Amino acid sequence: MSKNVLVTATGYSIYCQKAKQLLEQNGVNVIENPHGRPFTQEELLQVVGDIDGVVAGVDTWDETIFQKAPRLKVIARFGVGVDNIDLQSAAAHGIAVSNARGMNSGSVAEMAIALMLSCLRNVPNLNRSTREGAWERFMGRDLTGMCVGLLGFGDIARKVAKKLSGFDVKLIAYDLYPNMELAKELNTEMVSMDEVLAKADIVSMHLPSLPETQHIMNAETFAKMKPGSVFINTARGALVDESALFNALTGGRLLAAASDVYESEPAGTENPLFELDTFIATPHTAAETYATCENVGLMTAQALLDVFNGKNPENRLN
Length: 318
Description:
Layout: E1 3-7, H1 12-15, H2 17-25, E2 28-32, H3 41-47, E3 53-56, H4 63-66, E4 74-77, H5 87-92, E5 96-98, H6 105-121, H7 123-131, E6 147-151, H8 155-164, E7 170-174, H9 180-185, E8 188-190, H10 193-199, E9 202-205, H11 219-223, E10 229-233, H12 242-250, E11 254-259, E12 279-281, H13 290-308
Parallel strand pairs: 1-2, 1-3, 3-4, 4-5, 6-7, 6-9, 7-8, 9-10, 10-11, 11-12
C-alpha cells in the first residue's frame, strides 16, 4: 500500500523540495497545505481519514483528530515545540511523534537578536516615518554594555549567548536545570529568575511551553523587571499574559517589547498590542530561513520514512 503524507507546514514545495523528492522517491504521496495557514480542526477532520503520516506545523493534533485517523502512524513536527500535539493520546493510538530539535535554533537565535536591536534603535517606526516623508530624530540605545537576561538556557538561548559575545554584553540566565559547564564556556552567569528580571536591560524568553510555565510572564513578573527594560519572546505565546505585557508597556515599566509568538495564532488585528509603537510584531517566522527549512524538511521526511520502515525516528518524543 502506498503511503499518504499530509504536510500542514506551509510553503513545502517552495522551500522543502529535497524533502518532498525524498518522500516521493520512496513511494509517498505528498498532500500539501492549500490554505497558507494552519489547518482548523474541521479542516483536519475532513482529510485525515486516509493519512499515514504528517509533517505538522502548528495545527492542533489531539484525541478528536486521532479518532478519525485510523491509518496515522507518525507525526514529524516541522519545528521543535510540540505543545500543539497530545503526546499521550498519540502514543495510545500507536502514533510516533518526533520533532526537529536543534535544527532551527540558529535562525531563531538570530531573530531574537534582530528584535533586540530593532527595539533599541526603533527600526520599524523609523522605517515607516521615513517613507512617509518625516526626517525623524530618535535617540537610540547601544546594545554594547547592556545586561541581557535569558529565561531558559537550552539550545536556542545558548546560541543567543554565543552570537551576543561580540557585542560586549553581560549575560545572565535562568534555567530550572542549568548546565553550568556550558554556561561557563559562554560567559553566562546562572542566576534565579527574579535576578534575571531585576538586573537585565533586555529579557529574552526561551522557556518551553508547559502547564507550569503558562503565563509565567504576568503582571507580577513584569513588575519585577528593571524599569526601562526590553522584553523579547521568540519561544511560545502561552508563556506570556498579553494583557499584562500591554499594561507593562503603556504603564512605562518597559521601554519596548517584541514578539514572534502569540497566545492565539494567527494573531488577530484586534490584538491591543498592535496599537502600540513600542511593540514590534512578527508572525511566528523566526525559524523560517532557507537553510533551516531545507534541513528541517529533510529531517522530518526521514523520520516519516523511518517509521514506515519499522524504525524509530530521530528525536522521538513518545
